[in-house]
Design a protein that fits this description.
The structure holds two protein chains of two kinds. By secondary structure, chain A is mainly α. Chain A has helices spanning 2-13, 24-49, 53-72, 81-101, 106-128, 134-142, 150-179, 181-186, 191-213, 218-221, 224-232, 236-261, 265-290. The longest helix of chain A is centred in the middle third of the chain and has 30 residues, at 150-179. Classes of the chains: A mainly alpha, B alpha/beta.
Chain lengths: 291, 207
């Protein structure tokens, strides 16, 4: 990869690419955004259809706790994947398990889990900050280009391909189950399995996105692309395509904003995403007025 | 003749609540069997048990002779008003392995038109599901439940909220369906008009 970064830097130095391409961290950030956008954008329309926005937020917060657990157990701060993925997965499966058995509304249960994981995370964070600078942890909370490594890109690529294939394989069952679980069940869909599989895939997508988007903002990337797409789409194909395109535009735009104004990448990407949402909302309003 | 469905002493409890109290009944093959009873008598709970959604005491036995398929038309199918899903895409969800988000082929649209023609909704394939009227949506759900023809069709108050013309149209289609039907109805007149047999569920005293 070093030779590739050097070649891109040469092109930037000769003015054939924008100036930020001189830096390897920016190129890595761009590659990660190009990998993340189809993954999160594609996933977002199922997250919204399955009403898992709040669930995704809770998972993002659980990632912070997972990070601190990983560090406490000896993982490096920059790649505490086992701690983050392990804790997020346990939290996600526990949330679904309890939700399927309890009579309480799902958002109430998710709120309980969110409070639990956040409380645990804050307590552990105090222990962690005795060994690390709090600003190093901030990178995980808000996302940072500087911490993305080639290994992260590889993990993102592999996870993206596997999650994408699994989603396509189970797409029709997932959407039918989102519409009406009883109808899905009558059609032979194993609704419990579908629900568990989806949260495992969502957990994997969120965990690999943390470095660039950040734990506190990742929810936005699995909700806002689909919300933007719903303003314009007229069928599931355009819904998927617009979700992905919106995530790509926001991702690349946010990356340039982040490098230009030296603000956290996650924040810049989410701001760009939110701006796109309001643009699509305005377009939808105009379209309705003209119809 | 052996019944298609045998329900023996089926009870459903949630904590201290008895949602369905020792129900025993049989459904004859080829019949239209109506379930009536007041709210809370456990009619929809019975359907949930039949579909395998909830645990129950007692036994439920199906004596299928063919494909063993159960068709189901839910009582409420509240389509998310902002979900961009066409009628053809909805019908393809249960019939196609190919993910509908990657587009429907000509075969899927043709199949959709065939199914819709059976319920008098020709040309509705590309309509958004969320733009259908209540009666049209119920007929789409019926078309969906009838392909492939199930051995048992479960209808959970299919006429609720429909105007008279829609109810009449729905009932006409129902009378032409050649399969066993178990239908929940709040409308005793409708049950008497359509059903070969009516079972009345009583609300459990233990609730």
């Amino acid at each position: 990869m070093t030779a590739f970064y050097a070649w891109v830097a040469t092109l930037a130095a000769h003015g054939r690419l924008p100036q930020p391409f001189q830096y390897a961290f920016f190129v890595r950030g761009l590659i990660s955004v190009l990998l993340l956008a189809p993954l999160l954008g594609g996933m977002s329309h199922l997250v919204v259809a399955r009403r898992l926005a709040f669930f995704s937020s809770a998972l993002g917060q659980a990632a912070l706790t997972g990070l601190t657990i990983g560090i406490v157990l000896g993982e490096p701060l920059n790649s505490a994947y086992a701690g983050i993925f392990g804790f997020c997965l346990v939290s996600a499966l526990a949330m679904v398990y309890v939700k399927r058995r309890a009579a309480l509304p799902p958002d109430t249960l998710i709120g309980v889990f969110l409070a639990l994981t956040l409380g645990l995370g804050i307590c552990l964070l105090v222990a962690v900050t005795k060994r690390f600078n709090i600003h190093q942890v901030e990178a995980v909370m808000f996302g940072s280009l500087l911490t993305v490594t080639d290994l992260d890109l590889l993990v993102l690529l592999i996870a993206g391909v596997l999650v994408g294939l699994a989603l396509l394989w189970s797409y029709n069952a997932l959407l039918l189950d989102s519409l009406d679980p009883a109808l899905a069940r009558a059609s032979g869909v194993r609704t419990a399995l579908v629900e568990y599989v989806f949260v495992v895939l969502l957990t994997a997508a969120i965990v690999v996105s943390l470095k660039i988007i950040g734990a506190l903002l990742v929810e936005a990337m699995v909700v806002v692309p689909a919300a933007s797409a719903r303003n314009l789409a007229r069928g599931t194909r355009s819904y998927l395509v617009i979700s992905i395109v919106a995530a790509l535009i926001a991702g690349v735009g946010g990356l340039f904003i982040s490098s230009r104004f030296l603000v956290p990448t996650g924040g810049a990407v989410v701001l760009a995403m939110s701006a796109l949402f309001f643009i699509t909302l305005a377009l939808a309003t105009v379209r309705r007025a003209l119809a | 003749m052996k019944p298609l469905l045998e329900i023996a002493a089926v009870s459903v409890r949630r904590d201290a609540l008895v949602l369905l109290d020792t129900l025993t009944m049989e459904v004859a093959p080829g019949s239209l069997h109506a379930l009536v009873g007041q709210n809370g008598a456990g009619k929809s709970t019975l359907f949930a048990a039949l579909l395998g959604f909830i645990d129950f005491d007692g036994s439920i036995r199906f004596h299928f002779r063919g494909n063993g398929r159960i068709g189901y038309v839910p009582q409420r199918f509240t389509v998310d008003r902002t979900l961009p899903l066409t009628v053809a895409e909805f019908l393809a969800l249960q019939r196609r392995r190919w993910p509908v988000c990657l587009g429907l082929g000509a075969g899927a649209v043709k199949k959709s038109e065939e199914l819709l023609a059976g319920v008098g909704l020709q040309g509705f394939s590309h309509r958004p599901l969320n733009a259908l009227s209540g009666g049209e949506l119920q007929r789409v759900l019926l078309a969906n439940a009838l392909d492939p023809l199930p051995e048992l069709l479960l209808l959970d108050e299919p006429a609720t909220g429909l105007d008279q013309a829609s109810v009449a149209r729905f009932e006409k289609i129902l009378m032409e369906v050649d399969t066993t039907i178990l239908m929940i109805s709040h409308d005793l007149e409708q049950a008497r008009r359509l059903a070969d047999k009516i079972t009345t569920l009583e609300r459990s005293a233990a609730r």
